[in-house]
Design goal:
It is a single chain. The protein is built from 13 helices and 17 strands. It has 344 residues and is α/β, with parallel strands linked by helices. The strands form three sheets. A seven-stranded mixed sheet has the order 3-2-1-4-5-6-7, with helices on both faces.
Length: 344
């Protein structure tokens, strides 16, 4: 999904409203071919069904000025899941009702519906239960707090407990989950993960793997940096596998890897970019001189021979994490070296 918003309309009145939305919110405008010529910058189409098939997982959000039934039939074949589907908002051509149809929470359709309604002077139609009850939704809180959701299915149990007025256990030693003050009383704050009653709904915010039961929502802070060295042409899947093995050996949740760090000479490696995308991690590169200045526990003549420094993965991990010690020292596979550091 590349991002951005696609705005569609099917009628002349709807097209005029769609133009207003694009001007106010940005995005790409799509109109039937017979109308597109009269709207500068609009993309013409012959079949909405075919166009949605091409666009659906390209754009992060879709706004349709059309009937809900038409939109449901167009998007239904392309749905993958709440953690993968883009936001979909449907608007009547009078601009009276902006309906959050799909991915209200993680995709941001609820917020988008509110923005659209504001532009049109209409009303946002939100049907997600927590929003209707004025309660926080854990998937939204996690997203807004920069936390990766490890087991999305557990959101249902936690949100259900909130809706029923049952307290939710919360282990969050660093206070990373941004719970609004007015909702703090909904949570039972625990000092250690072993105090969790695994039979009750709970939220576990920790970079360490494990600890979550079937009713426990595991939220992973992006607190770990992985220093990575790799052979030229190494595939992203190989890098992710090596990272997963290194994390498992040290008891680190893979979802807590927030950055991959390496030497500048590896910037053009597609495998590193693929691995970073899959993990939702940023990519950081350092010049050889920067890495050479880091004292590492396991220097090696091999990287010195190939890239001019005695360490890539350990030095990069420590430098990117802003720490002088490693969480896990260098670990090697035939094509990848990995070291882990915890951000200071």
């Amino acid at each position: 999904m590349s991002g951005g918003t696609a705005v569609y309309a099917l009628t002349p009145q709807g097209a005029a409203l769609a133009v207003r939305l694009v001007r106010a919110l940005g995005g790409e405008l799509f109109l039937p071919a017979r109308m597109a010529a009269d709207a500068p910058g609009a993309h013409g189409f012959a079949s909405l069904t075919e166009l949605v098939g091409e666009n659906f997982h390209v754009y992060a959000a879709h706004v349709f000025v059309a009937a809900c039934g038409i939109v449901v039939r167009a998007v239904a074949p392309h749905l993958r899941g709440k953690d993968a589907d883009p936001a979909v908002v449907v608007l009547d051509q009078g601009g009276r009702h902006a309906v959050s149809l799909l991915s209200g929470h993680l995709g941001g359709a609820n917020d988008l519906a509110r923005e659209v309604a504001l532009v049109c002077g209409g009303e946002a139609v939100i049907t997600t239960a927590t929003d209707c009850a004025g309660l926080p939704s854990l998937d939204v809180l996690a997203r807004d707090s920069g936390l990766a959701i490890e087991n999305l299915a557990a959101v249902k149990a936690v949100n259900a407990a909130l809706l029923e007025g049952r307290p939710v256990q919360l282990f969050d030693p660093q206070g990373r989950l941004a719970v609004p003050g007015e909702h703090a009383g909904l949570f039972e704050w625990l000092a250690a993960p072993h105090l969790l009653d695994l039979e009750r709904p709970s939220v576990l915010v920790d970079w360490r793997a494990g600890g979550a039961g079937p009713n426990s929502l595991a939220l992973r802070p992006k607190a770990v940096v992985a220093g990575v060295g790799c052979r030229k042409g190494t595939q992203g899947a190989e890098i992710v596998k090596a990272l997963a093995q290194a994390c498992a050996a040290r008891g680190v949740a893979l979802g807590s890897v927030g950055a991959l760090a390496s030497i500048e000479a590896k910037r053009g490696e597609p495998g590193l970019a693929e691995a970073a995308r899959e993990l939702g991690a940023e990519l950081i590169f350092f010049q050889a001189g920067e890495l050479a200045g880091v004292a590492v526990p396991n220097p090696s003549p091999m990287p010195l021979k190939h890239v001019g420094v005695e360490s890539v993965c350990e030095a990069a991990a420590m430098l990117a994490a802003g720490t002088a010690k490693l969480l896990a020292p260098k670990r090697k596979t035939p094509t990848v070296t990995v070291a882990l550091a915890l951000r200071a």
